[in-house]
Specification:
Elements lengths: L2 H11 L5 E3 L18 E2 L1 E5 L10 E3 L11 E17 L2 E18 L2 E17 L7 H5 L4 E3 L11 H31 L7 E4 L3 H5 L9 E5 L4 E2 L3 H8 L5 E3 L1 E6 L5 E7 L12 E7 L2 H4 L2 H11 L15 H13 L3 H12 L2
Parallel strand pairs: 2-11, 5-9, 7-8, 9-10
Antiparallel strand pairs: 1-5, 3-13, 4-12, 5-6, 6-7, 10-15, 14-15
Helix pairs in contact: 1-9
Length: 348
Amino acid sequence: MTPLLRKVIEFLAEKPPGVNVVRAITDQEDLLKDLMVEGKVGNAMHVIEPDKPAKFGVFPVPDNLRGTPFTHFLDGIQHARLLFYVKTEYGFLPVVYGYVATVALERRDRHLHPTPDFWQEEEALYLPRALMDTSALEMRNIRLHDIFDRSLPDQIAFAAALQKASGTVARIRDQQERAMVLKWLEQFGDSSKHWLVVDGSISDVIKAQSERRFLPLVGVSKTHHTAYLKPDDLIQVCSMKAYFRSSLFRPMRPKADEVISWYLRLRWREGSPPTYGLTRIEMPHDQAAISQVDAVSAWLLQEARPLSNPDPRYDRLLYPFHMCEQILRSRAPSPVMIETAMSQLYQS
């Protein structure tokens, strides 16, 4: 049992008034498994490459590049579980346990190793802090995150608050990962011997830089919630074969024009959906980065082997990211451990 969960169990064992322990996973709990994100329509500007046609297209990735210069890979995980809810004058309000963790693995002697300087984890309770009495939790030094830290809604539905908690866990994870990328850049950003590959977008990190310069930094996105391209260009992308990449573009809406981006197909299988094996790559918007797009694409294709089985995202998940997540999950509180910790309350 983790220190925070032990404190929570002690709090719940006192049977505070209005507090109801969740005895089993319910359909409401399913809201915490995957925060649904609606598709968005974005906008992008085509970036012309010196050795490529002026018209948007797709191109085979050179197959004569062997070995990769990538030295570090950064990824994170998050877990959220509804532990209890509280009866208040605003109705029933959920209290969610959230766990986030981030690691950057370093490649040494062809093997990936975690390093203490680039490992962080945090557990906390997520709740509408302004709408309930949290003094007993604060007295036990239980870390709390307010799910409505920006503005309170006029009405609060239980399911909406539960989903808001899940979104806040995701936001805290994003902040943790961003801070670690900035720390890595501070330590290695000026080195010609180190490269960092990040799971997800790097646009926020680039925005935080005081000056625009080349950085040995690559972001790899596995999800495609935003359609940046015009329909005819997007059709070309979704029709790409394995080991092909698209032309470059700058995402303009949502605003991320600090980066250049392109699509890369890691693998393909007949009968699969159009996003099978499809990733979107980001690098800082810099002429030096533009000149390395083919090389970076070839390096990433090599990082996609071996397959990240049995992960259901194996078609888009680089193997080093799979290793990051495996290591993080080995330390994270498991659902069984949480259920075991809570079981003593169910019997009381």
